[in-house]
Write a structure and sequence with these properties.
The protein is α+β, with helices and mostly antiparallel strands. Strands 10-14-15-16-18-17 form a six-stranded antiparallel beta barrel. Helix 1 (2-29) packs across helix 3 and helix 5 runs antiparallel to helix 6 (124-140).
């Protein structure tokens, strides 16, 4: 009879593993499919299966290891590692979920396989290394990965693991209509329904003890004991469990024995404390963790300063009152000024925003010249941290990091929202280079989910062309990272469709959790940044008071046209192509003078000058991952006469109008960032404010930070993806 049951169990396990193998194969085959719409759904379905039946996790890990081992055998024969990334991320995601006991032998097999993957080029080896570190931590300290993730995401206060995370989802109001905003807000704010701090702490105690002690853990009695004990006692045991986990991670050379011994003592103490209240016998594993989602704040991004205000409030208010007081005092004492020195007198003071979220002092009673502070060497190195972590192939996961806050900023929209993010990011780096406030405490991670106001249509070529224009950076990220393309780029179709169907009063169904689950997957596994190059533009504008200079930044697109010839361009663009003959009026545009440095493969600088006849100029950025490692700008001069049309490639460009004409300049296709009466523009790679400090002797001079000469001093916007840039 016993042997028959064992045969049945073995047969069931084999059937489950066979089914999972088929699903994994379908997921991997979809990587080569030109359509990305089903990839994210396949991954999500696989996740739901593991959540529903925790015993599937062991079988899924076994399937993934077998597939990775097959890839290792062919690793020198075929230089295609695309499928390795989804397998590694799926493996990591299964391990950090609450799951049934994973045998030590299986962990060891995973560890050996991942070690062999370290010979792969970047960024594959970086993803393998971060997964390897996670597996090693879980082997020596069972339950640690899940506990750390829940504590950080839920901001569960304790003395021993102080990392806090918060997710800010910023939606562009230019894209988000009222129905779309209501839909996405309802989908994301459903995460609040699963937040119950006391229950989370009890479940974490049970989970860690059950994962570490296995069958020796009397789970059902433990659950009953925690229910009858008071909140103060539960808090005490929660702190004790967290301490045990953190000490084990810190002293991992001692092995797992000391850690398990501590868990046994905690297990016994809890049962002893409530022995008079426990009435039932142990019935085995009862662990049932409520669904855990991070704390998400969703808002329309009305003002670019909103991002700074959110980060400042999260960072400073999360600290203890005493540490905030010390921080403010140290900032006040270190400021040197030639006038009153009163903190509230600072125009746009950084601390004006911390009293109430998103409230700004638009008209301060007093103004003052820019002040500066002495920046010590530690502050200088803190400013360089983001540059080091943003290097392609770096692995920030599980690195030693003393910053106790992580802000995960997700922007939703088209190219325009990335333009606004670029401007806000540049402003943050500039503020921090003058007066360090957030960098020492805050780890800033940036994410992007493309959304348009128009529902994607695969059958309409015009619709696809419009998408290419509005979402050129999203398409670029999809080409760089196919896993991003399948899971994140594919979200815009279901978001747009559901906006029309969703009722504001309806409760989001399980199917509607797809967006929230995918966002969580992106936040937890999107660790490899793609650095989008940022360009600065200096515009000289004319006015009745003379000329003024405006400095701006853009990340994807700059369009300049001459208003007098705008009607000519529009009339020409509407004319059928068969009728596009030489116009009867010999007016093709205006003369502009152009000087630029030609981009060449030899890296040899060739300065050229042109005087084309044009009615408009379009400048687009082409990031490095597509251009063999060299960022450049593509500059197109448009004229009614095709003979005058011209394209050049450069990183630096100067353009000036002639004949007393002026330009209208629009950045990143955002009408909110349009500048008129522009006489000349100068475009060049944007220098990173975080790589320099303000000189003592003169406010106009800058000094480079230590180590900056070893890094790329050009500012780039680091958008997290799953793979990063393939070198």
């Amino acid at each position: 009879m016993i042997s028959e049951k064992m045969v049945d169990l073995t047969a069931d396990a084999a059937a489950v593993e066979s089914n999972l193998h088929s699903e994994v194969q379908a997921l991997l085959k979809g990587m080569n499919s030109p359509s990305a719409s089903q990839k994210g759904l396949l991954r999500w379905t696989l996740e739901k299966k593991v959540e529903t039946d925790l015993s599937c996790s062991v079988s899924l890990i076994s399937v993934l290891v077998k597939e990775l081992e097959k890839k290792l055998k062919k690793i020198h024969k075929r230089r295609s590692y695309t499928q390795i990334i989804p397998m590694l991320h799926t493996l990591y995601y299964v391990v950090i979920q609450p799951c049934s006991m994973i045998p030590t032998s299986l962990y060891q097999r995973v560890y050996t396989c991942l070690t062999k993957l370290l010979i792969l080029p970047l960024p594959y080896s970086a993803v393998a290394l971060s997964t390897l570190r996670s597996i090693k931590m879980e082997m020596t300290t069972p339950g640690s990965l899940y506990q750390r993730r829940v504590i950080a995401e839920q901001n569960l206060k304790n003395k021993y693991f102080t990392l806090q995370e918060k997710v800010f989802v910023l939606a562009d109001p230019a894209v988000f209509s009222a129905p779309l905003e209501a839909t996405v807000r309802a989908y994301l704010e459903v995460s609040d329904l699963f937040r119950d701090t006391p229950t989370m702490k009890k479940n974490l105690i049970i989970y860690v003890l059950q994962t570490g002690l296995g069958t020796a853990c009397q789970s059902s009695r433990l659950s009953q004991a925690l229910e009858v004990l008071g909140d103060q006692m539960v808090e005490k045991y929660f702190e004790t469990v967290v301490l045990a986990v953190e000490q084990s991670i810190k002293n991992n050379t001692d092995g797992c024995a000391a850690y398990l011994n501590r868990l046994q003592h905690i297990h016994r103490d809890i049962l002893t404390a409530a022995k008079d209240e426990i009435t039932q016998k142990d019935h085995g594993s009862v662990f049932s963790m409520a669904r855990s989602f991070p704390e998400i704040k969703f808002l329309l991004w009305q003002d670019e300063d909103d991002l700074w205000n959110l980060l400042a409030n999260f960072t400073l208010r999360s600290c203890s009152n005493s540490s905030v007081d010390e921080e403010e005092k140290s900032k006040r004492d270190s400021v040197r000024s030639e006038d009153s020195g009163i903190e509230r007198d600072l125009k746009g003071s950084d601390f004006d925003d911390t009293e109430q979220p998103l409230v700004r002092n638009r008209a301060p009673a007093f103004t003052r010249r820019n002040a500066f502070k002495n920046t010590n060497s530690t502050d200088k190195l803190n400013l360089m941290r983001e540059k080091i972590e943003a290097f392609p192939g770096s692995s920030p996961v599980l690195k030693e990091d003393r910053r106790c806050h992580t802000a995960r900023v997700v922007v939703m929209g088209d190219n325009r929202v990335l333009g606004r993010l670029t401007r806000a990011y540049h402003s943050i780096r500039d503020r921090e280079s003058r007066r360090l406030i957030l960098t020492k405490k805050l780890n800033l991670q940036l994410y992007y989910i493309p959304v348009t106001e128009v529902e994607p249509s695969l059958s309409s070529p015009d619709s696809q062309c419009q998408d290419e224009g509005r979402l050129s950076l999203a398409f670029f990220l999809g080409r760089v990272d196919p896993w991003y393309n399948g899971n994140i780029n594919s979200l815009r179709a279901p978001i747009s469709k559901q906006a029309a169907k969703h009722s504001n009063h309806s409760e989001p169904s399980e199917q509607h959790h797809f967006l929230l689950d995918t966002l969580c997957y992106y936040l937890r596994c999107g660790t490899q940044p793609v650095n989008l190059p940022v360009y600065s533009v200096k515009m000289t504008r004319s006015s009745c008071d003379g000329t003024s200079v405006v400095e701006e930044v853009f990340v994807s697109h700059l369009e300049a046209d001459i208003p007098e010839f705008r009607h000519l361009r529009e009339r020409f663009s509407r004319r059928p192509s068969a009728c596009r003959k030489k116009p009867t009026v010999e007016v093709f545009g205006a003369v502009v003078t152009v000087s630029y440095t030609k981009t060449s493969l030899s890296k040899r600088e060739v300065v050229k000058g042109e005087a084309p006849m044009t009615f408009g100029v379009v400048i687009t950025s082409e990031p490095a991952a597509v251009t063999a490692g060299e960022d450049y700008l593509t500059v197109s001069f448009n004229s009614v006469n095709p003979e005058y049309n011209k394209k050049i490639q450069t990183q630096n460009l100067s353009l000036r109008t002639m004949e007393h004409r002026t330009l209208s300049v629009c950045l990143d296709k955002d009408s909110r960032r349009t500048f008129t009466d522009v006489q000349s523009i100068e475009v060049s790679p944007c220098s990173d404010p975080g790589c320099r400090i303000r000189s003592r002797s003169s406010f106009s001079n800058d000094q480079e930070l230590p180590l900056s000469k070893y890094l790329n001093k050009v500012l780039s916007l680091p958008i997290n993806t799953f793979t990063g840039v393939t070198l």
